[in-house]
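> run fold Quercetin 2,3-dioxygenase
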Amino acid sequence: MKTVYHKADSRGHADHGWLNSYHTFSFAGYQNRERSNFGVLRVLNDDTVSQGMGFGTHPHKNMEIISIPLEGNLEHKDSMGTTAVIRKGEIQVMSAGTGVMHSEYNQNKDEAVKFLQIWVFPREENVEPRYDQKSITDGEKINGFQQILSPDKNDDGVWIHQDAWFNLANFTKGNGKNYTINKKGNGVYAFVLKGSAKVGDRILNERDGLGIWDTQSFNIEAVEDTEILLMEVPMDLPDYLK
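> ok
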């Protein structure tokens, strides 16, 4: 088993006043050759957007973009005609494909919105752009894994154009479970949302990240009540990026 550890305070950081963002991988003004991606996982941004502020209309292409609100509500508009509000307890995916324009705003006047912005390289270029969002509260599991994303349209959660599986893991102190890789050649990036846990042989605290690959499975054990996002992705980049 191979691992790469990213401590929370080692992430890139940008404070734009209206936006406070922590970058696990190279993004915008934060560029680190050793932290450009984890397999096809290209971006993991931990964003806080101030009241009434947000990202103006801007383009994306050939990227699977996933948003997971942690606090507050985020308003989404795009060139496909979508207008939606994403709330805590939901997950959003946008396949940018051949190209799409969109904006994201904090619609709240009295509280900041916190959300994870995640980008994954798709397995192929120039797919038809699409948007989807789903509630994930009904499938919440304690001391288990809740699948919130996969490559299968018929699975729980949202789907993307990539052999990737995302799970939320909620464990009470002292409990844990073994995670088994879904597809050979995939790795998992574990990101602690709150609490602390032993993942493999490493203790992770809030907002720490650990990439794991070259293994069929690994164990998670909660040091305290813990919530972890597990992002399983292919470790090889698609041919169009080679």
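The chain has a mean pLDDT of 96.
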